[in-house]
Structures are given as C-alpha cells and as structure tokens.
Write a structure and sequence with these properties.
Length: 167
C-alpha cells in the first residue's frame, strides 16, 4: 500500500515528461513560425494549450495507472491495453517535433490521424478493464478531435513551399 502512491504519481506524471520535452525543444518556433501561420477563428489562444495539456496528461496518466493496477502490473494481459496507450503516447509526443520542429504540416497530419486511431483503440480496450479509465480519456479524445481539425485546417490554409527546381 505504501508503494502504490508512488506508482500513482509515476503513471500520472509520465505523459507530462514527453509533453514538456516537446514544448521545451520547440518553444522558439511558436513565436517565430506558428504565430505567422493562417489559423481559423476558432483556434484556441496559445495560453490555453499548456493548461489543457496539463489536465489531459494528468487524466490519461492516472487512467493508465488504473488499468495497470487492475491488470496486476505489466504481464501478458497488459500488453495490448498498455501497448496501445504507449503507442498513442509516442505519437502524441512526436507531433510537436513534426509540426513545430520540422515544420511539416503533412507529417503532423499523418501523425495525428494515426494518433486518433490509437487513442480510440486505447479507450475501447480500457473500457473492458476499467470504465473510469476509459471515461478519463474522453476529454483527451475530444481535444484530439479539435486538434485534428485544427491541424487539417492549418495544413490546408498554409501550403508548404514547393522544393526549388534544380537547373
């Protein structure tokens, strides 16, 4: 029982690590490049993103702890539900470097579409294990839906320059 709080905190904090790293590595691109992009009127203020991701990462991290705990740790029963979670988390963490770092709107769009599928798969797999864990992913899925629409709109409204032709 004494160790369980450490596992709870560890699982809850884990998603924040990649999120923070993604922000830290790409923070200079936000004012330098992102602010110059054409964005739809419904694009959230840049101040909303850190707050939203803090809440969403905490919810998904705690939910992953619930699933891990209900499955009794990382044994064979946990491979699919926690594997889906890990895969979607990796794609989540990959989005900022693709979008901001590489400035590749197309790759960011492909990433977020794959992320959407894995996040939905994670929620479905978790629902059979722990309904609360699956419900804790609903705000994340909603935010991903908005983020997917935003990524698509930005990609469509900001065509990437064609490579220079060599003579």
């Amino acid at each position: 029982q004494g160790r369980m709080w450490a596992y709870t905190v560890g699982f809850t904090v884990l998603p924040h690590l990649g999120g923070f790293l993604g922000w830290f590595l790409n923070r200079k691109e936000i004012p330098a490049w992102y602010q110059q992009l054409k964005k739809p009127s419904w694009c959230p203020s840049p101040r909303v993103f850190p707050l939203a991701w803090t809440v969403l990462y905490a919810g998904m991290g705690y939910a992953s702890y619930l699933v891990w705990n209900d499955l009794g740790g990382c044994d064979s029963k946990a491979i699919v539900p926690l594997g889906l979670y890990g895969a979607q988390l990796a794609l989540n963490w990959a989005w900022p470097p693709l979008f901001f770092g590489a400035r590749s709107l197309k790759l960011a769009m492909i990433d977020i579409l794959c992320l959407d599928c894995l996040a939905i798969g994670t929620a479905c797999a978790w629902y059979r294990i722990n309904r609360l864990a699956a419900l804790l992913l609903l705000p994340y899925l909603g935010w991903l839906g908005m983020a997917t629409c935003l990524t698509l709109r930005i990609w469509k409204d900001n065509p990437e320059p064609a490579p220079a032709k060599s003579e």
